[in-house]
Predict the structure.
Amino acid sequence: MKVLLLKDPKEDDCGQDPYIRELGLYGLEATLIPVLSFEFLSLSSFSEKLSHPEGYGGLIFTSPRAVEAVELCLEKDNKTEVWKHSLKEKWNAKSVYVVGSATSSLVNKIGLDTEGESCGNAEKLAEYICSRESPALPLLFPCGTVKGEILPKMLKDKGIPMESIIVYQKVPHPGIQVNLHSYYSQQGIPASITFFSPSGLTHSLKHIQELSGDNIGRIKFAAIGPSTARALAAQGLPVSCMAESPTPPALAKGLRLALQAPGC
């Protein structure tokens, strides 16, 4: 059974995207098509903030892209050695909160210890942070232009200081239309399409509707998390599956159940 995942391919240590491998265990033939590209913003300002851990109570990472922004700051400003020998340890003396295992592993690679990674989404992470002792200094939150408001609002309501800085923006991937057209012409209508962000849905839905035509009702739509599920519902599309956490096993389990439902 063919399924379509609208995300970038990412190879793991085994040289294969973990989503393709995990879905394959359930007999699902997954194809990945990227729908978003990223542009980084305000890196010099972010780099300055990273150089002064004494001004913050910790860090919050809710996306792999925010971690990439840290790496770019270190490379661009030749701060890799300073990071290794002093800055990293100073940040590690504070709390570094993350959402999900993918973001956590990237944060670990730049030498930081993480907490909260078992929280599958920003709302659960906010609950976790609120359950901790409130820091006197603000938590530094590098984020994208389209950030959810749940985490900032929950922290604000609890009186937890936070300073957000926009370090990237999502733009449509230049190959969306061509890649989707190629998939449909070669593979036909997929049994399921999984969206990985509200932005990804925004930039791809029109093409999917055009290519699917009257057959769109045959497709089971899946979301990687609650914000994407809400975006699907807002477009009037039925959400057949929402992964319990943003991981390959959770998505595979959810898709298997959705595709076993009557009518598949």
In short: DSSP finds eleven helices and ten strands in the chain. The beta strands are 2-6, 29-32, 36-40, 58-61, 95-98, 139-144, 162-172, 192-195, 220-223, 239-242. The longest helix spans residues 198-212.
